[in-house]
Amino acid sequence: MNKRKYNQYKNFKKHHWRNKINDNRSNSFSKKKNDKLLKLFDTDKYAYIDSSKSFISALKSEENAEYQSQLLNQYIGNPEEHLKLDLDRLFITMRCQKKDIERVMKGILTFSPMSTGQLLTIRKTTVGSVNGSSDRGNNRGWSSTRPLYKHAFKIAINGDQRRFFNVYVADGKNHPENLTSLRIDFIPNRFTDFELRAIFGHLKYVLKHRRYDQIIRNARVTRVDVGFNMPGVMSPFVYAYTTNSKVKHSCCFPTGTHSLKETTYIGKHTRYTHTIVYDKGLKESKRDLKIGLNRELVKKNLDSTPLTTRIELRYRPYSSTPKSLMLKQLPNITLPLPKLRFIDPKVLPSVSNDTLGDLLVDKTNDAVKSFKTYLKETGIKFKELSLDTRWFNRACKRMLTHYLNLIQKADKPKSEEVKEYCATGRHLQEFIPENKPKTSNVGNPPLQIAQKAQNAAIKGKSQYIAIIAGAGSGKTRVISERVNFLVNEKQIDPRIITVLAFTNTAVNEMKLRMTYSSMPNISTFSAWCLSLLKIYLPEEYADIDVLNKEGQKELLLEVIDELEITESATTIQLKNIFSAHVNLLKSFEKLMGDPAFKLNCTLAEAKNSHLLYKKKKQNLGVIDYDDMLYLVYKNLKKKGLAKRVADANTYLIMDEMQDSNIIQWRIIDQLINSGIRLFCVGDPAQAIFSFRGGSYQHLENFEEYAKGGKVFHLDHSYRLPSEIINVSNEIRTQLGYHPSYALKKSGQKPFIAEFSSLHEVTDWIIPYIANQLRDGTRTKEIKILIRTNRAAKHIKRLLMEYFKPSNFLSAEDIDQIVITMHKAKGIECKVCYVIDPRFWHCIPDTKDNDLRLMYVALTRASEELYICRSLTGKRIYKDTKEKYMLDILAEKEELHEFIDRLN
Predict the structure, then answer these.
(1) pLDDT-derived band of residue 319, with 50, 70 and 90 as boundaries?
(2) pLDDT value at position 15?
(3) Residue 172 marked as a ligand binder
(4) Which helix (H) or strand (E) holds 563?
(5) What percentage of residues in the chain have a pLDDT greater than 70?
(6) Each residue of 735-752: pLDDT tens digit?
(7) How far is Cα 181 from Cα 97, in angstroms, rounded to an integer?
(8) Alpha-carbon Rg of the chain, whole angstroms?
(9) Is 777 labeled as ligand-binding?
(10) Residue 473 annotated as lining a ligand binding site
């Protein structure tokens, strides 16, 4: 290739983020000073070091402040010379005809010339959350006025996942208006012009030249991100705010009151046009790790790259105006860069330690404006910097004109040009992920270290011990071995050991694992409370009967009938609020105001019905399950009784502690005060019974709850392969818990299949399961997990209809296969199908509750996990507009295999 062509095509390597920063750094950049500040990074965790004291010391240094001030003044004060604007995201939507869609579906995977395949890799993938947010910034889910994107293709350069070009296809099927559309999403600045010519030229070839020109002429832009990097400038020295009074919202990440902030959003970042100020190196390093780049290489890149702060405007045209932004008008728009002001870091050494400490954990727009007010009031002289908007507008126009010309022309490179270009890019391999999938096993402790952690927990000496154990970490073994340790090594009488499990099934499993001449007391919490009443209060409760579910239902029906309560009030509603009244120790006044408890009657009717229900129980001489707990809690307050119970149950061992409710914790409180020794096992990430009053916070804060207590973490899963662990860790991380590690050999990545309705799911899943059963998979090894009982009944009915002619599956078999996610707690299987809750109209829950339930669902399978995801993307969290977890997982292609149901 001649020199001119080589320069025209540009070196691939320059398009890696590290090299772009190195190429654009100021001549005032000092590697020595940069390396000094780099010590404030934790390059193992890819975050700032957890020491506000060290950061305050760095900010107070006059040398650091002078250096950072010099760089910031150069970048902001003279952008024409020192800043380079780039286009960081572009969404293009194109309304098409059915014939256009057919051409794309049939031809996008076929290259012409064939050499294009050396440069581009194209594969079908998930649509991710593209249907979950509209052009107008509304992320409440898909609506029938918009296209329903059902297919997606990812185009990459030489397999480099960082340089992606997504093409989404709405084929009009199952859409009430048969809307057809194409949508393109890519990051222009990660591609060379040559690469974009190849991609758009390929689309032009697929759609046919004339038709491509027509479609592009009428295309719309739905998102434009532009930004610039400031190499050498460290984010903790950057304090920006806007003078635009219309901007009311601002937030920082990571969240947490005491977290040192890496990213600041100025404006509503979930839906509207906003500006973001963030640490470029940290963000890109985390992304490199996620796509599978070698950890040592990522660390080397971060260490050798200038600390960099990035300023980025994310423009969503439809958040401010209902008018369409046509692609052909792109260079003529004036992007609304907010009136940003930067406080010169030269002032920082003059600021008090307390004020700097506050700034490090809160860099929101209001916080920085308050900082400015503080400087004025204290008489500290300071300088403000502002970006030249004329430069910004000129740079935008030049850049957007350039990209528009590339897209419109789409002049596909010739075969020889592609071959020569690829030959110059062989050195790019160092930036491409290894073929081996990224797993959580990298750097994992070996099996013997995991066992050592278990043994340390089993033989713990503290009076109060909590074991935080993730899915598949051997919780039941830990409990049985703890009993074995107490009985055989500590010579403790088994009769003063009490083991409480969450279900009768778990109780039976525990009993099978323990064989002693004198057995410990093993039961559920409710059964144990009943035994305490009969043992210690025999005069009142020796012959008491317990009301079963049917008996309780009959009694509640009598109450509704006698009091002539509103017909829409049901026995389930009354049962739930009566239970919450006891288990949460809350008044009816508080419960009636809680949206979690739906009750179609008045406060007075609720109170009267409860009094009548209690009277009817007394007349019959019965108690219900809630009464067992309340009566023990109430009677333990009697003088000496708690001590007697504690002496007879000196060693209390509890399973599934995260699901214990308030009244259970209060009972334990009284026994702890009376000298009991507590050993409890649980996982806050699996706390899925908050609607029953489950309170995992005591387990999370165990050392505060039980003074002198000791917490052990068992982070190694014996049951789950690393591929499923990787997916579940995405949830654990969002919840703020320790990640898990797989001790099992690598297995199959989870599968994701996408559907527009539950009807489509069942049409695919039932024959799929039938084939697995015929191939020898046993019924008990397959589970379909669904969110609601109503949806479960629907799927059971369809399964029964499908298998009825052959009698291949009985009703009992089907009941075993299809269960709700809540009932799946503690269940293990080889093959698991998790149905997206959004297919059925379930009641929205909080993000945390939904994440915990999804964590339980995704950790049941030991071999094959299938996630059936909804394409319509309806929002399910009731407390946040954040992206749904299954949509996030779908976009992390390295974590799963996509099932193309059409092939």
Answers:
(1) low
(2) 47
(3) no
(4) helix 549-563
(5) 91
(6) 878 788 888 878 899 999
(7) 8
(8) 31
(9) no
(10) yes
DSSP letter at 862?
A: E
* 470 is annotated as contributing to ligand binding: yes
pLDDT digits (tens, 9 = 90+) for 228-266: 999 999 999 999 999 988 888 999 988 777 889 999 999
Any bridge partners for residue 263, and if so which? 253, 278
The region that residue 214 occupies, defined by phi over 0 for left and psi between -120 and 50 for alpha, beta otherwise, is alpha
Q: Which DSSP category does 115 fall into?
A: T
- Cβ neighbors of 868 (< 8 A, separation 6 or more) are 753, 755, 761, 764, 765, 833, 834, 835, 836, 839
Q: Percentage of the chain surpassing pLDDT 90?
A: 59
475 annotated binding-site participant:
yes
Task: Tell whether domain 446-542+629-717 is in CATH 1.10.390.10.
Answer: no
Indicate the CATH number of 545-620 among 1.10.40, 3.40.630, 1.10.8, 1.10.10.
1.10.10
Structure tokens at 463: 């009076």
171 phi and psi angles, rounded to 5 deg: -90, -5
476 is in an annotated binding site: yes
- Does the fold of domain 722-898 match that of domain 446-542+629-717? yes
- Which long-range contacts link 166-175 to residues 24+ away (Cβ below 8 Å)? 166/125, 167/104, 167/108, 167/203, 168/127, 168/130, 169/101, 169/104, 169/105, 170/101, 171/98, 171/101, 171/105, 172/98, 172/101, 172/147, 174/148, 174/150, 174/756, 174/757, 174/760, 175/144, 175/147, 175/148
Model confidence pTM above 0.85: no
Q: In which element (H, E) is residue 668 found? A: helix 662-672
Domain ranges of the chain: 3-22+31-76+225-404, 446-542+629-717, 545-620, 722-898
Task: Report the C-alpha gap between 872 and 756 in whole angstroms.
Answer: 6
Q: What is the mean pLDDT of residues 207-235?
A: 96
What sign does the CA torsion over 742, 744, 749, 750 have?
negative
DSSP assignment of 808-844: -S-HHHHHHHEEETTTTTT--EEEEEEE-GGGTTPPP
Q: Write down the pLDDT at residue 747.
A: 87
CATH number of the domain located at residue range(s) 722-898 in this protein: 3.40.50.300
Which of 43-57, 448-462, 669-683 reaches the highest mean pLDDT? 669-683
Residue 22: pLDDT band (50, 70, 90) is low
Which residues, including other chains, have CB under 8 Å from residue 340's CB and lie 6 or more apart? 240, 241, 242, 266, 275, 311, 386, 387
What is the model's pLDDT at position 861? Answer: 96
Q: What CA dihedral angle connects 480, 481, 483 and 485, to 10 degrees?
A: 170
Please state, rounded to an integer, the average pLDDT across all residues of the chain.
87
CB 238 within 8 A of CB 307: no
pLDDT given for residue 445 in this prediction = 47
Range of weakest confidence among 15-19, 331-335, 418-422, 713-717: 15-19
Q: Residue 120 in 3-state DSSP?
A: strand
CA distance 508 to 502: 11
Structure tokens at 888: 């996030």
Q: What is the pLDDT of residue 559?
A: 86
**8 Å CB contact between 779 and 817:** yes
Contact (CB, 8 A) for 626 and 547: no
Residue 431 pLDDT: 40
Q: What does the DSSP 8-state code read for residue 487?
A: I
